[in-house]
Amino acid sequence: MMRSVRCALALALASLAGCDLAPAYHPPKFVLPASYQGSGPWQVAHPQDQIPRGPWWEAYGNPTLNELEARIPQNPDLLAEREIYIQSRDLAAEAESGLYPQVAGGYGMSANRQSPYRLWRSPVSKAPLYEPSVQIDAQATWEIDVWDRIGNQAHARKRLAQAEAAYLALVELSLQAELANAYLTLRGLDQTITLYEQTIVYYQKALDITLMRLSDKIGSALDVARARAQVSTTQALLHDIIAQRALALHAIANLIGVPATGFELPPQDRTPLYLPVIPVGLPSSLLERRPDIAAAERNMAAANAEIGVARAAFYPNLSLNGAFGIVDAGFNIVSLPNRMWSIGTAIYQPIFEGGLLRAELQFANSSYRQTRDNYRSVVLTAFQQVEDQLSLNDQLAKEVAADRQALQSTTQAQTLSMQLYTSGATSYLEVIVAQIAAFQASVSDITGTIRLQQASINLVRALGGGWSAGDLPTEKQTLPFNPLRPGRSSGGNVADADPGDWRSARPDP
């Protein structure tokens, strides 16, 4: 009778195994517009259009930038973020281990030799003086995950590992965009330095003209002083631009993980990048293209699983345990009469915890709401960034076109004013005004072009840089190894697996 009751109880408990107490998880829904508000040619996109996957910067057609971007994987911040991702995978494996039985073995041996002259020992005693003892045993415990407490812990950890994979992609994208912007800044300064050098040569020629006119008694010393001041002021500003270039160069060295000392990039005074048309796509696709949105969603999914863990703490905890061993006073340890064993169950039911479990449940619920609100914030920020860059690209394109017209007009005015001054038809003050206007127009043309190219880079960054949610590892793929095949991963030894790419460190099937 008792045996039947025990069997029925075991079957009932087995039927409860896997009872998930976590709430049903549904990511928040957003009502999204059919198109972005920003205008411009980059908004025209078709379903087959995509930002280049992987090396998106190659669309800008600059070999030097391509070489620099290929060195981003050596950035120490990115390497540190990879280690954080690796640690998150190990934590996921640690949580997953609770689903398996825990088995341990032991071995013990001792030897004892007694003195034949010890007290109370009979001279005719046949008791052995030498007494060896050997013990071999094994113990096993297994917590039956009736309420899916361990399962939800494992789900939470694996989802957090997915979030870390998304954060890793986000850091990499940010560094890639930062490097592209720093490179554009450097090349913009190269163009500005060339402009300053050409302007100084032009101003020096103007100074020579004023000196010649002064020697011919048809010019004034005031004109000479003004011309000399222009040359000196421009030379001083040139040194400031050269210093800015050095700082930009040092920033690039830091981004690619090399010392600034000795790092150099030869100057280039041409437009650094080809400006491609960026396919924006539909607003609804942005949720699948931004790694920060994916990370926020995975954090929310992990917090949802933690609610199940907190709920399960209110219910009984069932575990099985057993042991088997062999003990012998000699070395005949394989003799079955020397065996020992035990088997049993344990049930732990919280009765009074002083409000601990309730507080933990409330904390888990609040944490989920926090991640939900954070997810909404990340999504809203993502749309703001895309709209910002669309508007900026649109207006900067118009600004660059206007700068080109202004440059053409001011250059013409500078030439005419110098001709009039040489013929004595105008004062040198008019020449200075025309020179300053032409110089400022040239600087604006360079600055506007670089800003437009940087805005294009930032638009790609706001759109996710070619990343998609399909690049995330699945929950199973976050596990660094298969626990049923210790010491192995898909690439061989766990320590030999590539830590930076989850695809090369998948668990064994």
UniProtKB/TrEMBL annotation:
Natural source organism: Rhodopila globiformis
Cellular component annotations (GO), alphabetically ordered: plasma membrane
Stored InterPro entries: MdtP/NodT-like (IPR010131), OMP_efflux (IPR003423)
Signal peptide: 1-22
Family the UniProt entry places it in: Belongs to the outer membrane factor (OMF) (TC 1.B.17) family.
Location of region: Disordered: 474-509
Protein name: RND transporter
Pfam families in UniProt: OEP (PF02321)
Chief place of localization: membrane
GO molecular function, one term: efflux transmembrane transporter activity
Subcellular location: Cell membrane
Stretches with biased composition (Basic and acidic residues): 500-509
Membrane topology recorded in Swiss-Prot or TrEMBL: Lipid-anchor
Keywords: Lipoprotein, Membrane, Palmitate, Signal, Transmembrane, Transmembrane beta strand
